[in-house]
Every structure is written in structure tokens, then in C-alpha cells.
Design a protein that fits this description.
The chain is mainly alpha-helical. The chain is 66% helix and 0% strand. The chain contains seven helices and no strands. The chain is flat and about 95 Å long. The model has no long low-confidence stretch (mean pLDDT 81).
Length: 172
Amino acid sequence: MQARGRKQNMSVLQTKQQKFYFFGSLLVIVALLVVTLWRQPDYHYLDNTNYAAKQQQDKVLAAAYAQYLKSIQTDPVASQKLLQSIISQDDIKQAVQQQLRTDQAVNLPQVADSSMHTSGQTGRQAVVQYFTDAVAPAVDFSQKTTDLNRQLFAGDSNSEDTLQQQYGRLYS
């Protein structure tokens, strides 16, 4: 008997406010369902364009334009004279020179002879030796900075300055 009494007291909607929210939410869900089923939106695009008529219209316009060009009887020589009267060759040349800045001085790069490595040797061994010598400073720099990378924030700043003095020319 007591088990039945407990079931009756365990009602989900105990207060008037809970019942109001429950039935109000239920009413909103039903209203949305009815509106959705009654007024289903049209999600697909209906293309009502008559492409055959558009194509025919384009052909008529192209023919009319071609007829117009024939009717005005353009003369290439007259067109060239008209263009030259509007803007002269000197004006065109001046505009091109201004845009390309042809009056600026060109500074040729100067490479010091001491930085050039030349050799009279030929063959595979000479090429390998040349590339080894060219890459050696970068490899040496990488090896010396490995320890600094491990101690990024605790490293000695004097060693960084020394490396920068030794290898600054590599990256400048």
C-alpha cells in the first residue's frame, strides 16, 4: 500500500508554474510543427529563363552591331591620324619614360675580389671542394648555435654577440 502512495507523490509537474511551462512549451512545439507542415518553403530554384530566345536575341544584337560597323565605314588611316591628333608619339614616349623611371641612375653591384673564390682546378673533386668551402661557415654556425638553442633564455649573451660578429655576414 505504501508503494502506491509513493508513486502518486512522485508527480513530475508538482507546481502550477511547472505545469504552465510544460504546456506552454508543448503549445509552442505544436504551433511550430503546424506552421512548418502548412507552409513548406520552396528550397529549389526554378529557372524560367528561355535560353533559346536569349540566344536568338544575342544573334540579332551581334548582327546589328556588325551592320553598324559596316555602315560607319571605318578607315584605319583616318583612325591613326585621329589618335595622333589626340595624343602624340612624344606624349606616349614621355609617359612611358616617366612610368619606367628611365632617368634614374643604375648602380651596378660591386663584388669584392676577396669574397670571390676562384680556382684553376677542374673536375669533380674541385666542384665538391668548392661547395664544401662555400657551405662550411653555415654548418659551423648551425653547430655553434645548437647549444644556444637548448639554453634559449638562460644562455650567455656574450656568446651570442660573439657569434653575431663571426657570422653576421652570412645573413646580411
